[in-house]
Amino acid sequence: MAKQLQAIRGMNDILPEYSPAWQYLESRLRNLMATYSYREIRMPVVEPSPLFSRGIGAGTDIVEKEMYTFEDRNGESLSLRPEGTAGCVRAGIQHGLLYNQTQRLWTMGQMFRYERPQKGRYRQFHQFSVETFGMAGPDIDAELILLTARLWKELGINEHVRLELNTLGTLEARKHYREALVEYLSGFEQELDEDSRNRLSINPLRILDSKDKRTQEIVADAPVLHDYLDAESAEHFETLKSILDAAGVRYVVNPRLVRGLDYYSRTVFEWITDSLGAQGTVCGGGRYDALVELLGGKPTPAVGFAMGLERLVLMLETLNLIPESVQKTVDVAVVTRGDGVSAKALPMIEQIRTGLPGVRIQVNCGGGFKGQMKRAFNSGADYAFIIGEDELANQTVSVKPLLTDGEQENMDISAVIEFLKKRIQE
Ligand code: ATP
Ligand code: MG
């Protein structure tokens, strides 16, 4: 027998049992974005590799260790997208969406990173992300945080996430800080963990969020970025905080929050949960004013965020917050009695469907009457339509309530439609 084929490690099937949770989350996200007047953009999952090495930064974990990169048949280096921002900026520049305009965009889809698979961390995962362009002030930063806060409330997880906030200042201010940091950390070079030692020359800010104990102790006394902030960035940050205060959004300023990507400036933020163990960041974002120019466009202020949908679905499941109604897929189960009745009943069912748009009617194709009735009960349907030779001949349906003790009633097609219209409304 041939060896059984398996999905790639860390790349999951989302089975029908779980898709209602995904659809629920996705539709909440779509509705939310519509109410803030954001528009959807969709990009390819494969892009030329240099987009990511330039856009994300050569010294980052993502580009150094996590990208799926390969040559296509022409020898061009391509990569599966590890995140959505670089591709969105590429598309924005290519199609002239950014120059002298404002854009509020969202997208949703698969991302790929070669990481060690574990709970909440996969090699193919899904992000929902928002990118805005052309708005330099702190009000748009605040809008992004407010809309995520609203989402947590709608999903019922607002008590289970907390907001951490920081500002990285301008790239210029960060350069000065970087020098001071490197000077301080160089004094401890031999004591740093290996990753951090390597980062010292490439990406020293990342050392600030090292998970290594000794490195953390060293970092505790390191110079802090806030002392190097330029006045404008400091004011931007103060205004952002005052908007959040006025709107009642709680946050903690974490001066060590730097985020993994090179392109951020000024505001960075993360929403973190304790309900998922180690993989606690459900949403991260920030301002990336330099990226558009870096990728070949005109200077354009930009701010965005990305959330990990697997982690959110896990949270909703763990906290039992997926409404039962979304699990339900059948309102009416059609049960037939007698040889060949099932096939002949279909045109009649089609007439009923036309009169009942939105009502979910499942036809039991095949099996004896008893087996079909059992499936009808197990489907969670409210009613069964029972159709035998008599019903066919008279063009009627026997309607049997499955969730209550009500009587079975025989009705013609228009009566069935009227009856269900009153009882099952989408
Ligand atoms: P982490 O610190 O958990 O590795 P990150 O900083 O690499 O996260 P981002 O690049 O900011 O993550 O991506 C935004 C969000 O996407 C994360 O907050 C997380 O919810 C989700 N995410 C990132 N990597 C993965 C992954 N491998 N599997 C599942 N979700 C992920
Ligand atoms: Mg990561």
Whole-number tally of structural domains: 2
Poorly predicted segments? none
Which descriptor suits the 3D outline?
A: elongated
Average pLDDT value? 93
Helix segment count?
A: 16
What portion of the residues fall into strands of 2 or more residues? 15-25%
EC number: 6.1.1.21
Enzyme class: ligase
Keywords: Aminoacyl-tRNA synthetase, ATP-binding, Cytoplasm, Ligase, Nucleotide-binding, Protein biosynthesis
Subcellular location: Cytoplasm
What order do the helices and strands come in, and which of them pair?
Blueprint: H1 19-35, E1 39-40, E2 46-48, H2 49-56, H3 61-66, E3 69-71, E4 77-80, H4 85-94, E5 103-112, E6 124-133, H5 138-155, E7 161-167, H6 171-186, H7 194-202, H8 213-220, H9 231-247, E8 252-253, E9 265-273, E10 281-287, H10 291-294, E11 302-308, H11 309-318, H12 324-327, E12 332-336, H13 341-355, E13 361-363, H14 369-378, E14 383-387, H15 389-394, E15 396-401, E16 409-412, H16 413-423
Parallel strand pairs: 1-5, 7-8, 12-13, 12-14
Antiparallel strand pairs: 2-4, 3-4, 5-6, 6-11, 7-9, 9-10, 10-11, 14-15, 15-16
Helix pairs in contact: 1-5, 5-9, 13-16
Adenosine-5'-triphosphate is lined by residues 83, 113, 115, 120-122, 125, 127, 260, 279, 281-284, 306-308, 310-311.
Structure, explained:
The mean pLDDT is 93. The chain folds into two domains: 241 residues, Bira Bifunctional Protein, Domain 2 (BirA Bifunctional Protein, domain 2); 98 residues, Rossmann fold, CATH 3.40.50. It contains 16 helices and 16 strands. The protein is α+β, with helices and mostly antiparallel strands and 426 residues long. Helix 1 runs antiparallel to helix 5, helix 5 packs parallel to helix 9 and helix 13 packs across helix 16. The strands form three sheets. The chain has an eight-stranded mixed β-sheet.
